[in-house]
């Protein structure tokens, strides 16, 4: 099955979030509530509103969005920002990086929601797209992001450096990737 | 689709551009494209009523940057 990476989130993708993703996420949260599970077990991106996010950055060159489609269904979304922050790792401090504002996979692909995820590799495809975008910007593959707790292991497994909890940004853990780490992941 | 343009810079401007390239590990094109992205972002935020400040935490100084 061929997946397609698109360098723009459009109206069809936003509608797919609203009609396909959100009902499944809400249904999953209802099940967790019925089972008496604590709120920490909810998908941590459940409150994200992609339409608002895309509206806020409309027309701004500093932002780039991506969507992954497969078999006519939306499988993942990502928003990147090239004007948010500079590198923090000592070996590349002060240099530019492409920052991943948000990345999300369809609920049916998430192991913590679906017992049998439909597609694997959406997250890593997005990270490779982020690296390629960084290269297009002339930033040599350097990327950075703050991770939701449920995704920390994934970013560590991508080879990103964990710089610890960032007290200036919602106490989320900050990860950064160097050019050589990017080369190792994406070639 | 990318388009090519010729840019005329003074020696001083070219020197600043080269210094930024060296410091930031960017090509000249990458520096100018980044400058355009930042300029547009600042301009839009100012049009929306935002203000741009530089803050020196050690001196407890905060100065508004006027973008004309």
Walk across the major sheet of chain B and give the strand order.
1-2
Largest interface: A-B, 14 and 15 residues
What structural class do helix, strand and pairing data of chain B support?
mainly alpha
SSE pattern of chain B, N- to C-terminal: HHEE
Structural domain count of chain A? 1
Characterize the main sheet of chain A. 7 strands, mixed
Protein name (chain B): Transcriptional regulator
Description:
The complex is a heterodimer of chains A (187) and B (68). Chain A is α+β, with helices and mostly antiparallel strands. Chain A has one domain: Gcn5-related N-acetyltransferase (GNAT) (Aminopeptidase, 3-Layer(aba) Sandwich), CATH 3.40.630. Chain A is built from five helices and seven strands; from the N terminus they run E-H-H-E-E-E-H-E-H-E-E-H. In chain A, helix 3 links the parallel strand 4 and strand 5 (143-147). Chain A starts with a strand and ends with a helix. Chain B has one domain (11-64). The radius of gyration of chain B is 15 Å and the shape is extended. Classes of the chains: A alpha+beta (187), B mainly alpha (68). Chain A binds chain B through residues 59-62, 82-83, 92, 94-96, 137-140, and chain B through 23-27, 29-30, 33-34, 36-38, 40-41, 44. Chain B: This is Transcriptional regulator.
